[in-house]
Amino acid sequence: MGILRGEGLEIVAVAPLIASRPVGPSRRRYANGAILIDCALEPQALLAMLKRIETHFGQRRGQRWGARVLDLDIVLWSGGAYGDDMLVIPHPAFRQRDFVLTPGLAIAPHWRDPISGLTLQHLHARLTRPHPRPR
Known about the structure:
Blueprint: H1 2-6, E1 10-14, E2 18-20, E3 30-32, E4 35-38, H2 43-56, E5 82-83, E6 88-89, H3 98-107, H4 120-128
């Protein structure tokens, strides 16, 4: 987290890390977490900063969903929905990913998805509730 503070980001909350299975062809398990930050950067500038941090830790672009040391994403933003050629907020798949919702729930359960209007608490409950088996 020191590198984020060194970039001028104020860390408001940190979720505990959880282990998850990979999405895609990777075979290793991943550690997933979430942080809530406060900064004055616009989404594109924040994304550029996060990509520089990934590179600092050895991330190389190329294989989609391949094994990586660090993957930093902007999932939600206080400005609501955002989109351009390089970035879409909210992250398009976050509603279907327990490894995103569980850490997010730990730090911001009442944060609302600007598209559905549902809180992270509601989205997590929808994703993780047991589904009855067909008879």
